[in-house]
Amino acid sequence: MYKVIFDPEAIEFLEKLEKIIAKRIYDKISSTKPIPYHFWERLTGRKDFKLRIGDYRAIADINYNSKTIEVTRIGHRKNIYKKM
């Protein structure tokens, strides 16, 4: 089982959302802990991964050695990739 770590920027974004949407995003990320490589998709030309959650995306670094999923960013699909 992997451990999920949220970056302060990701937590701040979740706090600004409606509680129902924030809970849905959090639950989806938490549900990937047993086998993250099945749900997360590697970004083209990068080392980090993305997870699709409806209109939102989560970006994370997955470390297979320490079994951690570090969620670095969460945002709407139309503008999450612009800031990268």
Structure description:
- It is a single chain.
- Strand 3 (49-53) and strand 4 form a beta hairpin.
- Strands 1-5-4-3-2 form a five-stranded mixed beta sheet.
- The relative contact order is 0.23.
- The longest helix has 12 residues, at 19-30.
- The protein is 30% helix and 33% strand.
- The chain has one domain: 2-Layer Sandwich (YaeB-like fold).
- It is globular.
- The protein is α+β, with helices and mostly antiparallel strands.
How does the SSE layout of this entry go?
Elements: E1 3-6, H1 8-16, H2 19-30, H3 36-39, E2 41-42, E3 49-53, E4 56-63, E5 68-76
Parallel strand pairs: 1-5
Antiparallel strand pairs: 2-3, 3-4, 4-5
- Structural class from helices and strands? alpha+beta
Name of the CATH architecture: 2-Layer Sandwich
Number of H- or I-type helical stretches: 3
Order of helices and strands: EHHHEEEE
Overall body shape: globular
Number of domains: 1
* Beta-strand content: 25-35%
Amount of helix? 25-40%
Mean pLDDT: 94
CATH homologous superfamily caption: RelE-like
Q: Would you give the CATH topology?
A: YaeB-like fold
Distance between the termini: 29 Å
| Largest sheet properties | 5 strands, mixed
| Number of DSSP strand runs | 5
